[in-house]
Design a protein that fits this description.
Layout: H1 3-30, H2 34-43, H3 45-74, H4 92-108, H5 113-125, H6 129-144
Length: 151
């Protein structure tokens, strides 16, 4: 299963659960009892948080894809130069070497979204997904502000 397929399946499940929570919340509010009304109102919070999270994830994905397309058009996408084990896993030493190079590029030109995009890919290749996401968000912010350094 690809990550995109998994995302759509989980999004569908989230929407179904949201509908069930909203339906239950409406029924609890309809009881007219103070406790039922309170719990019913709380039942609306779960879908709201879930839908907000889904929206943020979709926005992040679209922005990341836009940067990737733009970088590809410029011929600046990072080339897969990582060594792999016989099982197909990325060699840790190879990922660390590429990461060190990408980090040096980001430190040399901190205002260029392109180097931050490539650094985010290096973080992901090294297995540090939280930092990869945070770095990609930084690249998205730099791109949104119109940073054109490094062209």
């Amino acid at each position: 299963m690809t990550s995109r397929t998994g995302f759509f399946i989980l999004s569908g499940v989230l929407l179904i659960v949201s509908l069930v929570c909203i339906g239950e919340g409406i029924q609890l509010i309809a009881t007219g009892k103070p406790l039922g009304i309170g719990i019913g109102l709380c039942a609306f919070v779960i879908p709201a948080i879930g839908i907000w999270f889904l929206r943020q994830t979709v926005r992040f994905g679209k922005a990341s894809e836009q940067l990737a397309r733009e970088l590809e058009a410029e011929g600046g996408l990072p080339v897969d130069e990582l060594k792999r084990t016989s099982g197909g896993r990325i060699d840790r030493a190879s990922a660390d070497a590429v990461f060190a190079r990408r980090q040096a590029e980001a430190e040399a030109t901190p205002g260029d979204w392109r180097v931050w995009f490539r650094l985010a890919v290096a973080y992901a290749d090294a297995g540090d997904v939280p930092r990869a996401r945070k770095t990609m968000q930084h690249a998205i912010r730099l791109h949104a502000t119109g940073s054109t350094l490094g062209v």
